[in-house]
TrEMBL record:
The lineage of its organism: Eukaryota, Viridiplantae, Streptophyta, Embryophyta, Tracheophyta. It comes from the Eukaryota. Gene3D superfamilies: 3.30.70.330. This is RRM domain-containing protein. SUPFAM superfamilies: RNA-binding domain, RBD. It comes from Arachis hypogaea (Peanut).
Amino acid sequence: MAAMMQGVQKNTLYVGGLAEEVNESILHAAFIPFGDIKDVKTPLDQATQKHRSFGFVTFLEREDAAAAMDNMDGAELYGRVLTVNYALPEKIKGGEQGWAAQPIWADADTWFERQQQEEEMRRLEAENRAANQAAEDLRRKKAAEEREGEKEDEIDPMAKAEAEALQQNN
C-alpha cells in the first residue's frame, strides 16, 4: 500500500468526465474556489486536437487539492458528472517526465536508484515485521507464563473447603 501511495501526487488532481466544451480556463475557474492553482492541463488527442475528456489540476497546497477532490468528485460541470481523484505520475514511454520525445533510457539512472530504494524498503519492512512478530511472540509467552503462575497460586476452593472440614473434624 505504501509503495502504491508513494507515486500519488497529493497536490495534482485527475479530473475525468469533462464535457467537450470544457477548456483549461473553464477547468481553472471550476477549481479556483478551493485554493491557488499552479497548473491546469487538458491533454489533447493528436488526431482531433480536442481534449480526451480528462484533465489535471495542480494546486499549490495539498490541503486545497484534498478539499477540491472532496467537493468536486461527483459534481456536475457542463452537464457531465466529474470523477476527481489524486493523479498518478505520467507513465508515457520516454522517461520520468513522460515526454515521448525523450529517449526511453533517459531515466535509467533514476530507475535503478528507485529499484534499489524499493528493495531497501521491502527489506526494512520485512525486518520490521519480523521484529514485531518476535515481540508479539514474547508478549504472548510472558502472558501465558503469568497465567500459569496465577493458576499455581490459586487454591481450588473445593479443596480448601475439604481441608478446612478435615481440620475441624480432627
